[in-house]
Design brief:
Layout lengths: L10 E5 L3 H12 L3 E5 L3 H9 L15 E6 L12 H8 L4 E2 L1 H11 L5 E6 L4 H14 L4 E5 L16 E5 L2 H5 L8 E4 L7 H4 L2 H9 L10 E5 L3 H8 L6 E5 L7 E5 L2 E6 L2 E7 L9 H16 L4 H10 L8 E6 L2 E5 L6 H8 L5 E6 L1 E2 L14 E7 L3 H8 L5 E5 L1 H15 L3 E5 L3 E2 L7 H13 L5 E2 L6
Parallel strand pairs: 1-2, 1-3, 3-4, 5-7, 5-8, 6-7, 8-9, 9-10, 10-11, 15-20, 16-18, 16-20, 18-19
Antiparallel strand pairs: 11-12, 12-13, 14-15, 14-22, 17-21
Helix pairs in contact: 5-10, 5-11, 14-15
């Protein structure tokens, strides 16, 4: 745990007592702060109270006593409207920050230089975070991995000389981290997502671009340039240490992938290359983008070409992101539960042929219209959840569909059909939807898929371990 020494002898409000909120409370207390914590949900407050969290109803608090409000990232900061705690904090001129800001302040305060790699983007940020962490650890570097990927940042090990922090930042977390200044900042891509929290695409892109805002000339900015939003941001950053990454075209400084070969380029000249062919953990063009970003970050951290290539080869992939969970003969079962929007699902659909696709849940804006170019790859679609009827209409005339309702039914039907039809096939669970109509989060949904597959006759399950 990282003690929040920057708030020693100060009083801090904490709202939202999920994993990051509880970690914030523990960190602040360990650093010598007085904490006043609250949550809107009674059950959450009761659980926190039993764990010894000091509770105060912030509706009735004297906000002039607070040095800051540490807000959970899932609580609205601006859209669709500010949460009531945000309104009260701003009225009292209290800074509204997140646990990530407390973390960044702690790194700045610590003696001995730590190295921070910050990763964001609409898709691929969790895999890229895990991949960079895996490569650094494999090369013997002292490495801590956390943030939006799972482990709350304040639960990571304390800062120290030579320690590498590899942290995934959501747009919500960036918005709550005004002091963010990474040694290496990565923006992978931008597609419409979370617009309910940022107003529109311009607002969403502006928040993501903040990951570079405080960097100086010694810091590295790594930017994917394969979408118009990131390309525009890249064009506005003119300082020397900027590297572009692409899987669609060559770049003059950075890394690009062509024909499954990654090329490192400096001033227009190839300086290194690495084959990504045959690496199951980096299957698909989207993972090539992740690999290009990881290559740039790890070179900045001082790793050799050979160390990075070895890390690529041993990377097991990320749980719930194109995770191969089982096989039955020549039928693969792929858990891509983390594909909570159409753009993420496109990356999986682009990686396979003869697909028995399980999709559905709580649809995002636009549904699956943008996936039409991939429909010829789909042998049959098995639809679940709230989006099932709408998805069937979009697929009508282009792919056979079955209304399955629940995930276990869809898995059983897809397996039966794939086994009956014969030949190599992929049962792909890539829902292109949020999970909240049937599951609390995509992790629980992915575990349910794995359990449904495990219940089938004749399947050989894979290990669930991943970086």
């Amino acid at each position: 745990m990282i003690p929040a020494v920057t708030y020693k002898d100060k009083t801090v409000a904490v709202f939202g007592l999920g994993a990051s909120g509880l970690a914030s409370v523990a960190s602040l207390l360990a650093g010598g702060a007085t904490v006043r914590a609250w949550d809107d949900a009674e059950a959450t407050r009761e659980k926190a109270d039993s764990a010894g969290v000091p509770l105060t109803d912030l509706r009735n608090a004297d906000w002039t006593q607070f040095a800051a409000l540490v807000l959970a990232p899932g609580v609205p900061l601006t859209h669709p409207e500010p949460h009531w705690t945000v309104k009260q904090a701003k009225a009292a001129q209290v800074p509204v920050i997140g646990d990530t800001e407390v973390f960044v302040q702690s790194l700045m305060q610590a003696s001995g230089a730590s190295h921070l790699v910050a990763i964001t983007g609409t898709n691929g940020k969790s895999t890229t975070t895990a991949l960079i962490g895996h490569i650094l650890k494999s090369a013997g570097r002292d490495t801590e991995v956390g943030g939006n990927i799972g482990t709350a940042v304040l639960q990571l090990g304390e800062p120290g000389a030579g320690r590498h922090y590899v942290v995934e930042f959501s747009s919500y977390q960036i918005d709550l981290t005004p002091s963010l200044k990474p040694d290496t900042a990565i923006l992978l891509n931008l597609t419409p997502d979370h617009l309910d929290r940022h107003g529109d695409m311009a607002g969403y892109a502006a928040v993501k671009a903040k990951i570079f805002a405080r960097q100086d000339e010694a810091d590295l900015a790594v930017i994917g340039v394969d979408d118009e939003y990131c390309a525009e941001i890249a064009a506005q950053i003119t300082r020397p240490a900027v590297q572009h990454i692409s899987v669609e075209r060559e770049v003059s400084d950075g890394a690009y992938v062509s024909g499954s070969v990654l090329h490192e380029v400096a001033q227009g000249a190839d300086v290194a290359n690495c084959s990504l062919a045959g690496i199951d953990g980096l299957r698909g063009r989207h993972n090539w983008q992740n690999a290009a970003a990881a290559w740039a970050a790890c070179r900045k951290a001082g790793l050799s070409e050979q160390e990075i290539a070895a890390g690529f080869a041993s990377f097991p992939g990320l749980v719930h992101r194109m995770e191969q969970v089982a096989r039955c003969g020549d039928i693969l079962f792929i858990n891509d539960s983390k594909a909570t929007n159409a753009d993420a699902a496109a990356r999986a659909l682009d990686s396979f042929d003869n697909i028995y696709w399980i999709a559905g849940g709580l649809a995002k804006t636009g549904g699956i219209e943008e996936l039409k170019p991939f429909f010829p790859r789909i042998r049959r679609a098995y639809l679940i959840g709230a989006a099932a009827v709408d998805f069937a209409q979009t697929l009508s005339g282009q792919a056979d569909t079955q209304q399955c309702g629940t995930l276990d039914v869809a898995v059983a039907k897809a397996f039966d059909d794939a086994r009956r039809d014969g030949g190599p096939a992929v049962v792909l669970f890539s829902p292109a939807c949020a999970s909240f109509d049937q599951y609390r989060n995509f992790e629980i949904r992915g575990d349910a898929f794995r359990a449904a597959v495990a219940a089938l006759d004749g399947v050989s399950m894979s290990s669930q371990e991943a970086a």
